[in-house]
Amino acid sequence: xxxTPVPLAVNQQIxxxxxxxxARGHLTIGGCDVVELVAQFGSPLYILDEFTFRTACRQYQDxxxxxxxxxxxxxxxxxxxxxxxxxxxxxxxxxxxxxxxGGELYTALRAGVPASHIYFHGNNKSPQExxxxxxxxxxxxxxxxxxxxxxxxxxxxxxxxxxxRVMLRLTPGIECHTHEYIRTGHLDSKFGFDPxxxxxxxxxxxAHPELDWVGLxxxxxxxxxxxxxxxxxxxxxxxxxAEARDAMxxxxxxxxxxxxxxxxxxxxxxxxxAHWAKAISHQLSQACRQRHLPLPKLLCEPGRSxxxxxxxxxxxVGSRKVIPELRTYIAVDGGMxxxxxxxxxxxxxxxxxxxxxxxxxxxxxxxxxxxCESGDILLPQVxxxxxxxxxxxxxxxxxxxxxxxxxxxxxxxxxxxxxxxEGEANLILQRETYADLVAHDVLPLRxxxxxx
Length: 452
What we know:
Radius of gyration: 23 Å
Distance between the termini: 61 Å
Shape: globular
Helix content: 25-40%
Strand content: 15-25%
């Protein structure tokens, strides 16, 4: 029997907190046998553990409650996995929602999240998205001059009951060690205003009192293990806050972003959620004391560290290819369409055989996806029990940026997803069908072939 005790931090675990091995030698999550879940719902299958998700939310909430004297709001960065169920779960734990598109905003609202707890990001929000955000009255995190000009114009043109809430996103110029594609804090980034433009931004804000200038936002990247860049960010944000107050713009919220990493493989060593939140709280408080500023409302935006470890993906093993004295390929019934991170970021994962948890891992293989792409490799090298066709392979820590970045490459339908809790499994995403794949296709009449 393998049991995972409740740890110091969710983000330091590879498997969900409820993962165990039952008497049949099968992996169970949330009290549900993974092999039986695949038999019932098919594969590939995303399996989300409700207990792990909720525990991560509470670790952020509880730590800030204990360590920060001012107001705070934890925002679930829903781009990690945005669907009705994840937004509803986060909201039920008292979190707000960070969205990055009109579609994510719509989903959060449909999940029952009040607009007052939704913050809308993005470096190129369309006019339609901005108008939608104004209509529902969520907070808009402005990323560029075009957005500011449009927001000011829309606020003048439309009879709005309350001034639109606007935050300014700036690029802090802070480097951190993570993949180039997920670094957002360095100056050479598509996100945020150049900090050299801050005086101009303050002048613009003072000239447009029809907008409610709520505060400032910055984000340094994703899958970060270093603490110091986040502490440096607190100092930078407070310095900007002081400058805004000197300009008679009493902004009242600071958003330090998110980006705390998780453990995908044993060698990963991210700071614990509680450690990160406590450090941010203390650093921001100290920076405000040094500048004699009242504590702002502290916002942070964890996504991966909440949902990443809370989910796994279950696949059914298919073909085997042995290349003598080189390697063995094992193919599964999914791949880059349900998890594009390995081919995009060279991301590493941990895998196990759900139906043979007590069998020794004696074979080193390369796990390949089913797609017509040589780079469709989920795990370049992993040691597992000798796998056979119809075994159930589970890849851990797939809650973040798997479903949300999934595609229909090769016209493969996207997987189903279930949430598990205390032995009960509930469908939260239906498996797409072939009919779904062509539902939005349009075949011009001149291209139609008459039926024989």
